[in-house]
């Protein structure tokens, strides 16, 4: 595939690097105005450019990764140069209806919500499309499954997918930071505490994904009756551990909707 990513910022660059490393054989171009910030992408065989339109007529997939308020200007710039392309937008809050009105049947539009772990082949990516466009969404899903896990969802869940999958990166990191801080309090230096906390979170995730079981089944395996794990876990729950996470995710969703 020839993949043209417009907007080489945090997410656009992360997707480009993830695809270059994990979906080899594709031809990837990334554009942005301040091209100096993305020169390092060339180390991965990615072409960088200041032009959004050069070579775009040969692209199979165009990924829009600018800020939402820049979408109109970018669409006006590229649409005269493209037909029958897949345009995948990662822009929060920009609907399929809005994008479809812009393309007016000339191209297929999809919405994607990846996260920056795409760079390490570990993005949770939500994808939505109109029913008629699902075959093309499947092609993109296959591609994004190479840089993590990609699922097709109903567009009405896209905000929820953003909170769980993209904001969720920050929530997971805050869990690791809290574990690290506790690790320091119980005797480790910061570096060792972080290494143990991060690897433990990764290990738990690997087990969950490999064994495809409910988290509680794995928790049962590490909680000895009257042991220290269940004592710590129950104290966390008394202090509102699960409840605070659930409430935080719901408040995030309320705020995305009021933006
Ligand atoms: N970061 C995340 O975790 C995340 C997750 C999910 C979705 N998103 C969505 O992804 C989009 C990008 O987010 P981000 O965090 O990557 O933002 P960002 O770092 O600000 O990246 C946006 C990039 O677009 C470039 N740009 C602006 N105007 C352009 C133009 N006319 N042509 C080409 N490039 C242009 C900017 O570079 P120049 O100024 O140099 O052109 C900038 O590098 C947003 O719409 C956001 O809703 C982000």
UniProtKB/TrEMBL annotation:
Pathway: Amino-acid biosynthesis; L-proline biosynthesis; L-proline from L-glutamate 5-semialdehyde: step 1/1. Its EC number is 1.5.1.2. Signal peptide: none annotated. It catalyses: L-proline + NAD(+) = (S)-1-pyrroline-5-carboxylate + NADH + 2 H(+); L-proline + NADP(+) = (S)-1-pyrroline-5-carboxylate + NADPH + 2 H(+). It holds the Pfam family P5CR_dimer. It is an enzyme of class 1 (oxidoreductase). Its main location: cytoplasm. It comes from the Bacteria. Residues 2-92 form the Pyrroline-5-carboxylate reductase catalytic N-terminal domain. InterPro entries: 6-PGluconate_DH-like_C_sf, NAD(P)-bd_dom_sf, P5C_Rdtase_cat_N, P5CR_dimer, Pyrroline-COOH_reductase. One of its GO terms (molecular function) is pyrroline-5-carboxylate reductase activity. Keywords: Amino-acid biosynthesis, Cytoplasm, NADP, Oxidoreductase, Proline biosynthesis. Residues 155-254 form the Pyrroline-5-carboxylate reductase dimerisation domain. Gene3D superfamilies: NAD(P)-binding Rossmann-like Domain, ProC C-terminal domain-like. It is found in: Cytoplasm. NCBIfam families: proC. PANTHER family: PYRROLINE-5-CARBOXYLATE REDUCTASE (PTHR11645), PYRROLINE-5-CARBOXYLATE REDUCTASE 3 (PTHR11645:SF0). Catalyzes the reduction of 1-pyrroline-5-carboxylate (PCA) to L-proline. Belongs to the pyrroline-5-carboxylate reductase family. This is Pyrroline-5-carboxylate reductase. The gene is proC.
């Amino acid at each position: 595939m020839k993949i043209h990513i417009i907007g080489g910022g945090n997410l656009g660059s992360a997707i480009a690097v993830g695809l270059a490393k994990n979906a080899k054989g594709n031809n990837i171009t990334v554009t942005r105005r301040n091209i100096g910030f993305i020169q390092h992408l060339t180390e991965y065989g990615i072409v960088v450019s200041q032009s959004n339109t050069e070579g775009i007529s040969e692209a199979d997939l165009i990924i829009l990764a600018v800020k939402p308020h820049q979408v109109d200007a970018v669409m006006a710039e590229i649409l005269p140069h493209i037909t029958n392309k897949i345009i995948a937008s990662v822009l929060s809050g920009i609907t399929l209806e809005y994008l479809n009105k812009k393309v007016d049947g000339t191209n297929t539009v999809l919405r994607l919500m990846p996260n920056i772990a795409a760079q390490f082949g570990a993005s949770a990516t939500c994808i939505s499309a109109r029913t008629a466009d699902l075959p093309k969404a499947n092609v993109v899903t296959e591609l994004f499954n190479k840089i993590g896990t990609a699922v097709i969802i109903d567009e009405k869940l896209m905000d929820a997918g953003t909170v769980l999958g993209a904001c969720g990166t920050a929530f997971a990191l805050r869990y690791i930071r809290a574990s690290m801080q506790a690790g320091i309090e119980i005797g480790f230096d910061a570096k060792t505490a972080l290494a143990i906390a991060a690897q433990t979170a990764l290990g738990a995730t690997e087990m969950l994904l490999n064994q495809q079981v409910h988290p509680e089944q794995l928790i049962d395996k590490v909680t000895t009756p009257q042991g220290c794990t269940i004592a710590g876990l129950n104290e966390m729950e008394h202090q509102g551990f699960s409840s605070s996470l659930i409430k935080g995710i719901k408040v995030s969703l309320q705020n995305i909707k009021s933006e």
